[in-house]
Write a structure and sequence with these properties.
With about 375 residues, this protein is α/β, with parallel strands linked by helices. The chain binds acetyl coenzyme *A.
């Protein structure tokens, strides 16, 4: 049976760090509150558009697979923070990677579930024989949507990109199962109300810009149920048991959501990969970034059973079960890096302050 296996992987995390101490200097919060409630210590703030992070992560993934961009049939760009709506961000990534016209590209927006949605979509296209090699990139610049006057959301989000290359195999490796869902009854629990077409003139309101607005408790409750249930469905659909899971790579939104999901699945801590302390919630990018680190740190061996589980705005949720292939080392390495920046953290955040208002301690 033809399956899709991950043959390359890469990430791009921008260099500028926003720490809990920095946030303490801006608003009424504390390192202790943020650490205990979310598990986050610091996050990255990008000085470039999502497409530039995507191109760097994509270059690393292509090198790890030993492929050039001309070998890729399709690029799927998972993001909810697009460079532009027209053209799609995938077009910018296509241009930056110098992809040929024959390489198709599109955006897929399933919010924080975008990478797992894309992984499943790409795998099914490969299984069907339609395409052979697909580059899936998740790139997010959530910092652009942070309202630093709202401490309940400002401490949670950051920027990053992660990418994988998928190729066909006839071996017993690759994506074994995947499931996706959308609970639109909870649509208003997580939204950016004044974004996109809401900015059209006829809808223009006096205070036209709003950042991320969230009912944290409701999202929390539904995330634990959805990630747990879909993970079980994915494992069962693969004909396996929870005991067979070697590693869970969950969406990194809150360490308490991850811990509660692991408890539902009865998975010990060493079978759950977390890096939320270092990057916060980078939406669709959390899982591919975590995957690259898990590989580097030896969490994944040939044949490992890896479950990816995510939830996000919509509320979307998705899980996929993967049996890892024979290779856990990159074939080649890329020297792709972001263009450096001279701008300080506060200079990068100034656009947020101008749009959404200054945080209380900087007024
Ligand atoms: N620092 C200090 N205190 C704070 C902060 C802060 N940064 N933020 C809120 N508080 C206060 C609140 O005002 C409240 O005070 P009160 O009791 O005097 O009213 C108190 O802390 C408790 O607030 P809660 O919102 O009840 O705190 P909770 O324990 O629920 O944690 C959190 C909040 C971290 C947001 C949690 O609900 C959560 O993680 N929810 C899920 C969020 C998530 O995963 N979102 C996914 C986004 S995915 C996507 O698609 C973008």
């Amino acid at each position: 049976m033809r399956r899709a296996v991950i043959s390359g992987w890469g990430r791009c995390v921008p260099p500028t760090v926003l720490s809990n101490a920095d946030l303490e200097g801006m608003m009424d919060t504390s390192d202790e509150w943020i650490t205990v409630r979310s598990g986050i210590k610091e996050r990255r703030i990008s000085h470039v558009e999502p497409s530039e992070m995507a191109a760097v992560a994509g270059s690393h993934a292509l090198a790890a697979a030993g492929l050039g961009i001309e070998d890729i049939d399709l690029i799927i760009l998972a993001s909810c923070t697009s460079d532009s709506v027209v053209p799609a961000t995938a077009a910018h990534v296509h241009r930056l990677l110098e992809a040929p016209v024959a390489t198709a590209a599109f955006d897929l927006n399933a919010n924080c579930s975008g990478f797992v949605y894309s992984l499943i979509t790409a795998s099914k296209m490969i299984e069907s024989g339609m395409y052979s090699r697909v580059l899936v990139v998740a790139a997010e610049r959530l910092s652009a949507l942070i309202d630093f006057t709202d401490r309940s959301t400002a401490v949670l989000f950051g920027d990053a990109a992660g990418a994988v290359v998928l190729e066909p195999t006839e071996e017993e490796y690759g994506l074994l199962s995947g499931c996706m869902q959308m609970d639109s009854s909870a649509l208003t629990y997580l939204e950016v109300t004044e974004d996109g077409l809401h900015r059209m003139p006829e809808r223009h309101m006096e205070d036209a810009y709003g950042g991320i607005a969230m009912n944290g408790r409701e999202v929390f409750r539904r995330a634990v149920v959805a990630m747990g249930d879909l993970s079980v469905r994915a494992v069962t659909a693969a004909g396996l048991d929870l005991d067979d899971v070697d590693l869970l790579i969950p969406h990194q939104a809150n360490i308490r959501i991850i811990d509660a999901t692991a408890r539902r699945l009865k998975l010990p801590a060493h079978k759950v990969y977390t890096n939320i302390h270092a990057y916060g919630n980078t939406s669709a990018a959390t899982i591919p970034v975590a995957l690259t680190e898990a590989l580097e740190q030896g969490y994944i061996s040939p044949g490992s059973h890896v479950v990816f589980a995510a939830f996000g705005g919509g509320l979307t949720a998705a899980a996929a079960m993967m049996r890892w292939g024979e290779r856990t080392e990159p074939l080649e390495r890329s020297d792709a890096v972001l263009a450096p920046t001279e701008r300080s953290l506060m200079e990068l955040l100034d656009a947020n302050f101008q749009v959404y208002g200054f945080p209380e301690k900087l007024k």
